[in-house]
What we know:
The chain is an all-alpha fold and 117 residues long. It has helices at residues 3-32, 37-69, 77-99. Helix 1 runs antiparallel to helix 2.
Amino acid sequence: MPDAVRTAAVRAVLIMSLTIIQAMIAFLSTLTGSWLAFPMVLSSVASTVVATWSVLDVWVTRQVWNQRNGVVSVPSSSARQIRRERRRSHRAERAAERDGTGGGIGGRRNTGDLSRA
């Protein structure tokens, strides 16, 4: 994960955890009938909006980073193996063409007319 996205994600997790704690305090103070219940409910609503914004910030930061820097992808081991086999076959074909033992079009170079077999 890129640094900008990681920073936004950490910020979002911290804000979300504080929002959950605040909501729990609001719920418990409502159950007990404390005077703190109403201000905590109001601040919990505001914190929920901020937490939603922070999660959207992670998503937007990730999209912007991907757009600017491209997607970082690591090929799977099977893709690496296929690429390695393809490289080996290309090397073998080039070596065969250099030695003159290769078949196909490379063997017809000096015939003058490729349309005749």
